[in-house]
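Changelog excerpt

This revision adds worked examples to the README so contributors can see how folded entries look when concatenated. The first example is reproduced verbatim below.
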Amino acid sequence: MSVEVSWFSALCDDDYRFLGVPDTALASSWQHCRDITVTADRLGYDGILLPSGYQLGIDSVAFAGGIAPLTQQIRLLVAVRCGEMWVPQLARQLATLDQMSGGRLAINIISSDLPGAPMASVPRYQRTRETMICLSQLLSGQSVEFKGEFISLELEAPKAQPHAGQCPPLYFGGLSEPARQVAAECADVFLMWPDTEDAVAALLQDMSSRADTFQRTLKYGYRAHVIVRESEGQAMDAARLLVSELDDEKGNMIRNKSLDTASVGVNAQSALRLRADADGFAEEHLWTGVGRARSGCGAAIVGDPDQVLAKLLSYQKMGIETFILSGYPHLEECDLFARYVLPRMDHKKLTLT
């Protein structure tokens, strides 16, 4: 079975040579994020995640419109936050992006509090569910007649339609009970953050059972950092160097900048880090040091090329079909992973049936 292998462009101002130490050359900007994306495209990655954060960097949708004509084959996985934009306008923007990219758009749905407007988990995920239902219909060229708690629409589909004539794949993640239910009903790809292999297997089983109740089949994605070097010792040295100038106060400050610091998923990443051994490993080759200064994806796969590949293949055997990877600095680690591991993986863009 082939897998989709994607990289990450640091739109949310998340790029460091030394974790927690700002570097103006790595700050979120059009130039820097463009370079990461164009490099990942040239190196043969299947996709690139364009993340979204209000105070943390530059806008994902605007960036995608600018980068689409500068890339050749890479899929643009554009993160959008539910509630920030009225669904019909969002559908028109995304359909236009899909046309601009020649059908290379995918959508990462984020169920997040809006800046200045926090919302309890249950209604927030209901808003997300309604958004996903309506967005999927509009981007499939269908008219919408929907009356929900947050969205009430009776509307034709926008004339600007996706290149392939169907809704681009919807990627979505979350560990809370309402998040899992929304994913089972509405998502195409369920994304998860790093965890031990036993925990990943249990989550896959749970989500498959939930999807069955809706007579649906989910695909599964795994979002993680990587640190790969010619030898395991060199990889460990790189990991230690990355956090060598980080103190706990600075790490807490960085984590608390995010809008989702209290989410179940973020708390699970913190718990994973607390369960790790003295060197920060939650299990073999899964290092949680990155999470000391990051509220979301908080662990890295660390090792030599054989070890990193073996770890990824073990997830693949469980049923993971797409990987979204990153590393610090993102441009350099993008090249290292493409040199040492990517050519050894059977990979291609994920297709939906």
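The second example, added in the same revision:
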Amino acid sequence: MGTMTLDAASDSVGDAVAHGVAREQGYVSRLDLTNFRSYAALRLDTGPAPVVLIGANGEGKTNLLEALSFLAPGRGIRRAALPNVARVHAGNAAASWAVAARVESAAGPVSLGTGMAANGTGAARRVVRVNGEPARGQSAFAEQVSMIWLTPDMDRLFTEGGSGRRRFLDRMVYGFDPEHARRTAVYEQAMRGRQKLLREGVGDSVWLAAEEETMATTGVAIAAARRDVVARLDAAIAAEAAARVRHFPAAGLAFEGEVETWLDSGPALEAEDSLRKSLAACRARDADAGRALHGPHRSDLEVHNNDKGMAAALCSTGEQKALLIAIVLAYAYLLGLARRAVPVLLLDEVAAHLDKDRRAALAERIVSLGAQAWLTGTDRHLFEAFGSRAQIFEVNAGAVASVTGDPR
């Protein structure tokens, strides 16, 4: 791909100040899709301003956000299997698909690419490239750009199991510590390897001890990183609430679990030793359960609505959505302080759940942060608070066209 100057970004956010601190902006300046969902081929050029995607349901708005989300560690906003993302035409699925983007930052432009290819056995495998060169894994994306997203499926985040909340938090941790993505992958691989040995009846071996050693060292590092980010988010939201400059509920956050308790009471090395001993002592029980019953994969993100003094799970759907937005905005602000680069925000059908005042507050906060947010909706009027400060595109049957004029 070609290069692009940062003049446009500098003009937009070079003097932007939020809470008295200026930040640089990272944004996607070009998105290319090949055989991805409803898109046979697409090239979309964008500037640093918020991107609004308008269209009827089923036209491909969320597909664009999903494509971007594959340029972050993980399986994207839908957590789809690789073959399920390939475009289907006339009943036949494409053999491969690709997503590429050019990202602009203060350090200069970088090209990111990913997609599905077949390995030697014909099975699907994920390809990851940075500046055209193969990367060691998806953690390479986190080193280049930070992304966080909210989708309608996440409306149940506070009422369903803890795995979704852990993934939500991990995406924020990646922004502060890109190596967190690699550590979580190593931990999960060791956990699967240990469970396989237990399933095969290997109750005591050097291989089993080695997997548990990996789980202990990476597991405690994972817990410590999560704990640190949650503490930062909680403090930032509390400070904003105290300053009375907010329009969203004050979320109180904590990350709770066995490993976190050990870290509260002693150094990391002692926590590693405790986890290692717990895993060794519970081999028989874990074999019967079919899963490891100790480790950071059992910890959970606890969220409260401090304004109402109740757990997020007990709040209304609208308040839960507002709490999520408050957390995401706090993360964007904190990341700007830590890395002087705000994340790309992928906000799918978020505005439809907010009243007019909160829609206006969200627009103002996104603009003041200098964030390139990608927002979807069926009604253009939901985004009128952006005025001329957003790029508006109409999505229709796999085609994307720029829309000009005042959205009101």
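Reviewer comment on example two: Residues 159-314 form a domain with the Glutathione S-transferase Yfyf (Class Pi); Chain A, domain 2 fold (CATH 1.20.1050.90). The longest helix spans residues 206-242.
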